[in-house]
C-alpha cells in the first residue's frame, strides 16, 4: 500500500465530509499537524466535531478552523489561549464538551483499545459528572466515561518511515500516539522521513499498521504560544536576555 502522498490536500482527498469527527494531535502548538489542518480549512468542510487537547490560538492551529466557522463542537480540556473560541462559545455558536485532561487522554486510549467505557474518580461531584452514570467501588464513587473514536485522526511525528512507523519527540508525544490508534483512518505529518528498517523497533511509538496515509513536512513550523525569558545571571542593563 502506498502511504506517502505529495501534500496534505492529496493525503486527505476522499476522506473529508461535513459533520465528521476529527481527532487532532498535539499539545498547545507543539506537535500539531499544521499542514493537515490547513488542508482541512481549504477543503471547506463544515459542521466538524474536533477532539483535541486544545483549540490552538487565534490565527494558528485549530484556531484557523474557528475563523472559518468549520467547527461545530470541540471536545477539549484546555482552551484558554483562544479569544475567538471564547467569543463563539459565549455567543452559543460553538458547542464545547470540557473533559479533564487525563480523562480525555484515557477516553482516546480506550477508543483505540476497543474499550467502550471506564470508571474514574476524576470529576465526581463536579459539573463534569452531570448526566453520567456513577458506581461505588471499595466505598468510593466513580464516574463512568465513554471512549472516544473518530472518523479521522491527524497527527504529527518527528520521524517516520515509508511503512508509517512513527516516532514522536518530547511534548508532541502527549496526545499524538493515542489518537493515531483511535480513528477509522489516520493521516500523519512526518518531519524526518527515513527508509523502512532504519528505525529501531524498540523506538517506534506508533506502528505503521495504524497509519493509512502520510506526508513529508521537512520544514514544519515551530511555534511558541507564550515566550517567557529571564535575564541571564551577570547580564548588564540593555543586554539581550
From TrEMBL:
GO terms for molecular function: transferase activity. Keywords: Transferase. This is CoA transferase subunit A.
